[in-house]
Design goal:
With about 270 residues, this protein is mainly α. The protein is built from 13 helices and two strands, in the order E-E-H-H-H-H-H-H-H-H-H-H-H-H-H. Helix 5 crosses helix 6.
């Protein structure tokens, strides 16, 4: 459903992802979409340098070859820009999650593959990974165009559908039995909150002695095993080498991303 362009050699600040709608665009529509992406690259660079709070439409205009009026033809406000960055983040996550699910493994290994995908995304795109949360705050939502909000909601539904399928496989294979009072929504939220929190700490609290002394992927995997063991998701970590599974997923599915991360100076 989604395509990826603009990522070769890490030359872009983030990958350009689109849905199949782009295949039917006219030349003029494609030019407009390309210009919007160019503006998002500029906006993201400003956020990297100065943070979300200091992003302004004036700064985007000053850093771009376009007038402020042209920029307002694409975005209604700086909050609309942040929401657009959030939609790019969701597109990237969806693309990686779909690839993760091509890993041929047990249901719990599929969950690990999802976490590998998210961890790599957070390492490659720390700003975009935080932008997903920022774009859903009330102060951003209230100033985002209705059309963009509807698009983000659709992307979120797409992402949730992928995770729903993963956990449904655990139930259908009887690798997972829901304890009384627990729902699949509870499991999905637990996984999402653990993944977001763990990766956010690794990306933003490197100076913490507690965080710095832990190898990144191993700390994420440890958290995953503690959580899934607590749910009784089979096979338990005491019975299965999930470190090897993690490595296989990186090698088989995400070798390009792992190689790119090795070139980053962070």
């Amino acid at each position: 459903m989604f395509g990826v362009t603009g990522c070769k050699g890490g030359k872009k600040l983030f990958c350009k992802l689109t849905d199949n709608r782009s295949n039917t665009l006219t030349k003029k529509q494609q030019a407009i979409e390309d210009r919007e992406y160019e503006l998002l690259v500029i906006a993201k660079a400003l956020v990297v340098e100065e943070g979300f709070a200091n992003l302004t439409m004036d700064k985007i205009a000053a850093a771009s070859p376009y007038s402020k009026g042209t920029i307002y033809n694409h975005f209604t406000s700086k909050e609309d820009v942040i929401s657009a960055l959030g939609s790019q983040a969701l597109l990237h996550e969806i693309s990686l999650f779909r690839r993760a699910q091509t890993y041929d493994g047990l249901s719990r290994e599929k969950v690990v593959a999802m976490h590998v995908a998210y961890h790599l995304f957070a390492r490659i795109e720390p700003i975009l990974s935080m932008c997903v949360l920022t774009s859903r705050t009330p102060w951003v939502i209230e100033k985002t165009s209705p059309e963009r909000l509807a698009y983000i909601n659709r992307l979120e539904e797409e992402l949730v559908a992928i995770t729903d399928a993963i956990f449904a496989r655990g139930l259908s294979s009887h690798d997972l039995t829901l304890p009384e009072g627990m729902t699949t929504d509870s499991i999905i939220f637990a996984n999402w909150s653990m993944a977001f929190g763990s990766n956010a700490l690794i990306n933003n609290a490197a100076n913490s002695s507690c965080v710095a002394r832990i190898l990144q992927s191993q700390s994420i995997l440890m958290n995953i095993n503690i959580m899934l063991d607590g749910m009784g998701w089979l096979p338990l970590s005491s019975e299965h080498d999930y470190q090897q599974v993690w490595q296989h997923i990186e090698e088989d599915i995400f070798s390009d991303e792992v190689a790119y991360i090795a070139t980053l100076k962070r």
